[in-house]
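Handout, section B. The chain below has 322 residues.
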Amino acid sequence: MKDDKHNICATWHSLLLKDVHDSCITIHHLATLMDGMKGYIPEQNQQPLEKALSDLREALDYDGAKINHLQLALYLFQDAVNSILRMHSIKPHWMFALDNLVRTAVQAAILVLSPELGAHLAESGSIGPLGNVEPPPSEQAPDIDQDNGGGSTSGVSTVNSGIMPNHGAHRMMSNLGRMREENRQLLTDLLQAQSGYQELLKQSLAEQKLHLQLLSQSLAASHLSREEQRSLVSHVSMESHRHMLTDSNEVKKDPALVTWLQNLGLNNASIDRIVSEDLTLSDVLDLMSRDDLKRLGLKAGPELRIWRAILQHRNIPLTPTP
């Protein structure tokens, strides 16, 4: 893995882009993750793996969608490693052992990155227990005896006797591939669900903003309506007052009353005040009392002259009224 790190990461990244065209995961991210799994494999020590995943979470801003892309990349790691290992002359039992080691590292990374998802997959049987996977002993088995025409396998050492037969390894690899495909589909479904949830959140936020805007406009319109109502009331009041003044100015004047008042020496303001009450000369001479005259609010001089003329008209002696 150390010598082929660059090739593995490049192949790994190309596989990821086939599944997620706009993935935010870079080759540098994959190299960091690979270093963590490489540190985990010898003694299955989770500390390098946890540190690598913690650094990646921070680099991805703890974004759920981006971390989902990282989970999908984990499921593609075995395919990337196997495609590179096939370029080397590695015996089948070694390939099987290496595949088990890589699978164990991937499972450990999934459990560290997403304990809930790892537990769910473990319950469903998609991943197995994370037991220690011992690599084959360094002692290699001798090749098939060529002198026997390639038909005899008696030269195979007893070290290989514990290796699963070829048909069993093939069945195991087939099941493993199927599980990886199912896990990949689960992660793809999870990404789609997260994307749908994000769209719903965006739509809800847009609706809330629109509702707030409409509410602000409604409040502004309500405030404007109250201002218009006050303006209309003020206008109507002014018009009513103007009409009242106009009506008072259009009161029919009794010419006889006006002439009589002028003969008494009243000024125009006093005459207008009396005429505005819609009085006639007959009303003043025959019906008006001293209290009625006082209520007109005239000055003392015009009031006394009018009252004296009224008394003379009524042939009442000019004695002071208490």
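Note. The mean pLDDT is 76. Compare this with the example in section A.
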